[in-house]
Amino acid sequence: MLSDGSYILMVTVMAAAAFLTRIAGSVFMAWVALTPKSERFLEGLSVSVIAALVASLLMSGDVKTGVATLLALIAMALFRSVVWAMLAGMICAAAYSFVFSL
Amino acid sequence: MANILFTRAGVLKGMQRLLPVSLFVVPFGIAYGVAATEQGLGPFQATAMSGLVFTATAQFAALDFLEEPIAFFSLGLVVLALSGRHIIMSAALSRWINQLPVKRRLVTLAFLSDANFADFQTSLQRGENDLGTLLGGGLMLWLAWVGSTAAGAFGGDLIGKTDHLGFDVVMICFFAATVFGAVRSSTRMFLPVVAAMAVSALTYTILPTGWNIIFAALVGGAVAVVYHAE
Asked: What pTM value is reported for the model?
């Protein structure tokens, strides 16, 4: 069990670090002059950061994660709906777990 | 400069739009509440942490730091690394968000999360420009995260495990679908996306978790600049 002091300090450190990451990019960019080049860089960043997150999650996941993601992409291509993609992936993962637990 | 709005209707719209995703956050919040109380945090402490930190990955990682004396410096670095991708997102949003008055900017960014960032990108592609949706989406995710942490922390034993229901893959499906939509609506994003995914996967085992995402995103940004020039 933590002492109250340790808990408060711990939450303060974590909350400050998390808040810092959320504002840092915006604060930094306020000091940088926007050029067509830096706008393209930011545009590339905005998609790339989510793509990189997906790849990282796939690396840390198992086969089930990969199969479910693939099915979600197929659902997205067919129905053009993010919600349907999530449902397809979830149903796929649940079915996968069910089959392999038999 | 891109034109932006910040309306109350947008906040409500964002809350509504992120409601499905937020429902999928609930199992993670419950799992966190259960894990945190098992590791020695009180139920109120666990809930308050979710409210103030609002970063799932960093909060799970912090559960390894609960032994006294706490390694505060390492803990801070772990949180910085695991939520460092938010620096990138915040920079990518700067073209829009830096047009808001400072106070509004800070409040909106306080609720910045992967899912409302992804949703806002999609809405920009549709030609919408209301930053209220970003804040509203963040508020919805925050409510789901804090509420479900409380449910897990106070009543975890009653709920039990939900692993086999397939919730664990939902977020990655959401992000993958978002990337797919982004590439379809602007095909010049294809190469940056492929580069970012390749670099992220290849550096996954080499770089500490979190840094591979930041590095890969920067490579993707650089590819977007070079590819356009050619």
From this structure: 0.87
